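Quick entry, no commentary yet.
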Amino acid sequence: MVFHPEYAKLQARKRFQKRLEKDINHASTLISTLTNVREYHIEWDESHDYHTRLFLSFLQPALQRWHGTLTHLSIYVPLDLLNSFVTAKLPHLTDIHICLSSGTLARRVIDIHLDGFLVFLHNLKDTLTSISIQTTPSSVNLELSRFFRYLATLPHLRAIALTIPSDGAQLSLDSEAFSRFVQKHAAKLESLSLKTTRCAVHSKRDTPESINWIQTILSSIRAQTVGGRLPELQHVAVALRPFEASLHVVSDFLAAHSTTLKSITLMDRVLDLPDVCAVLPAFSTTGGSGLAQFVSMPLRSLEMRIDALSPHFLSLMARRLPHLQSLKLDLVDRTQMSRYARNSVRYPSLLRYVQDLDALGFDGAGWDLGHLVMSPGANQSWIAAFEEILVPRVPGLDSIEELTF
């Protein structure tokens, strides 16, 4: 008996084809049994070599079968499958999240696929209220300036989110294209999110300034909008990148919207107490001589990374943000926090902590805080210690939740 390599390859292809047809049939059967679907998420694991037909079996029948009911759609598929959306009609879709992964496709090919997706987005102009665009670090030649330049006004849009690698290379040709898109929706925009992912090793910046893409966008929005602000803005999420950048651009943007903001999320960079005072407008200082008088913000939710949960930080939160209801803290300085890793206020460091709070005039009774999430420490020791300190002093706080990622 002679073994022929080509025969083995043929048999392997037949087995693969048989498995593929079986998976496609399973997908079609599953989708056919589901009715009145309002939310649909499809996510690609690009580390696996899945066949394009498998994604199509999950995508095209869903768009056809649920076109009359879908309101929320989250898509992460190979970029060349975006052509499936050109003729799709989703008359009730209000929220869309798209993750773009172009691999090593040439920019010309990428633009062709994105042009087809633009047609789909423009067909949603009568219903779309939220759009979120994310890209992968593995998208070597992806550049979004042209995409945002041609993305038309969506009259009912209230929320815009953009997440790209932190070096800004994917907006390097025209970093203000995105801010001009935001400006089109300035009058009604309620939520703005600018987040980052890691930079790919092969990613390169076309201009040195692109690394400051977040600062450029925030400054451009203020320069292009009437009164330098988005009048209905309530929710802001900002990555504090690059780490060495001055905080004044973010601080100025938040200060300009301090009368409307209800939630602020500050990501990536670890803030110490002076940084917190610098970036949050409610903590602005005058001449370095102390905290300025101010009208308290309507802020209800705050999330950020800080070095430690010090008595000064807690006291500032309670005094300057009395209406804050939710506080989420990623605590980074384990050495400083380890002093509080005991389960009783009888421990000297915690007793001193309570004394410092009292000396600073901490008044938890006048604080609306009801939801505190923080890093747990070893065996949740930080949480246990601060529950013992804060729960009796803050009326709305029953417990502290563990921060998870």
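second:
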Amino acid sequence: MTLDRTTAARERVLLGSLVVKAGLARADRAFLLGGLIELARLGPDSPEHHRLRRAGQEAFQADPSAASSPIGEATE
């Protein structure tokens, strides 16, 4: 497997682990996609974006091993 394919596979696994961590492993796929589409519409400076980001940071602090993911490591 090439490095690009390995990196892409690792990214998918890490993103899937976020779904599990959020308690949505058994959620309907259409529901999950709809939620992600709604999240994608939020501006990075919106109050809702900041609120949700804080909630995610708190969840990672509750499980520090999950915070080591390189996926989505944007800073505010």
